[in-house]
Amino acid sequence: MSQYPDISLIEEIKKFLADEMMDDTDDQIMKTLEQWQTQHISSSRNIHPHSRRYYNRERGVGHVQLFNDYFTDEPVYPSHIFCRRFRMRRELFLQIVESMTNHSEFFQMRVDATGKRLSPLQKTTAAIQQLAYGAPADQLDKYIRMGESTAIECLSQFCRCVIDIYGAQYLRRPNTNDVERLLQLPSQRHGFLGMLGSINCMHWQWKNCPVAWKGQFTRGDQGSPTIMLEAVVSADLWIWHAFFGVAGSNNDINVLNQSPLFNDVSHGYAPDIQFMVNDTQYNKGYCLADDIYPEWATFVKSFTSPKDPKRIKFKQMQEAAKKDVEQAFGVLQFRWAIVRGPARFWHIAKLKDIMYTCIILHNMIVEDERDVIRNWDDDDEEPTIPVTQGLVENFHHYLQRNAKLRDWEVHHQLRSDLVKHIWERFGGNNNEN
């Protein structure tokens, strides 16, 4: 419906009044009606202006300042300042900018209808700054010379492009080569042969959760709506599995039941692992988990209140090794503050894009700085564990593999063997190294 009064209707009213009323009083009524019509149209136009205000932000000045500050041969700010503010090395950032430009027209240097344009550096920097600092989009206007709506669009486009370009590589499940490397990391520190990582869940507060959904997304210990992230993290802080989007009212078991964590194992796609612990052979890797997780062959949990010195030592080593996942959550939230503070978007799909983008960038940085983050050197080397690629078989074998995943007898046998192995290796020595 139009925001202005129906002119034809007013004319019909005027004609009707003119036909019915011919004296001086009638003329006064017609004059009053015309005045009302003029005033109403004028006020409507003032309330609903036709054009939006334009601000000359001098976008070119913003690009020049950004380029001189960080990207010239002799920038104003050195490399360690760049790494702190952009959360990565400059070489990695420029690689991402080039990938964005080649993948999407949005990140290319395009001229709009007014002849203005933003550079790929400005657009990518705007997205990175929102992820890194969790700041409102309007805050970027002062330095990058970019409006709020444009900055939000940059963030949305950046997340989609990162997932499209890098998702297959940096959100992948461990392949044979990955598993061979993973099996060497935890055994050197804590003696957990066959361990692939640690599993746990994290909550992200959802500030703009719709009122109708708040009961579904709120849990008592959180006090506000949250969305859950399930992750499996290796000792080098690489996030190998990420499942995000479950309502915060669920617990870790509910998330696990919805998660595709063991889909590859059930279908026979996952690499087969064979390792010996205390003269017992096992054919599947496992994750360290909290007490809430089920007693499956793929989980190794601690003891609640151990009294035996061997179990006490096992509990200490298991809890120390399991802190990798908590450390990864801490690094993820510290590096990308947008997932540390309350989420301000309305739609879960956008929140998923943001979370998975942060995880992809986290893994890219871990890969780029892997030798700096961890360089283990242990004289007491463990034997190399053979890894082979699993086979795809029929539904009968699928059910068998599912049953083996949930075998509680193997769970207890594996934990018992690990208790003996860790005690033989570390004994009563409190120094883990």
Automatic annotation (TrEMBL):
Top-level taxonomic group: Eukaryota
PANTHER family to which the protein is assigned, alphabetical: NUCLEASE (PTHR47150:SF7), OS12G0169200 PROTEIN (PTHR47150)
InterPro entries linked: Harbinger_derived_prot
Native organism: Coffea arabica
Protein name: Protein ALP1-like
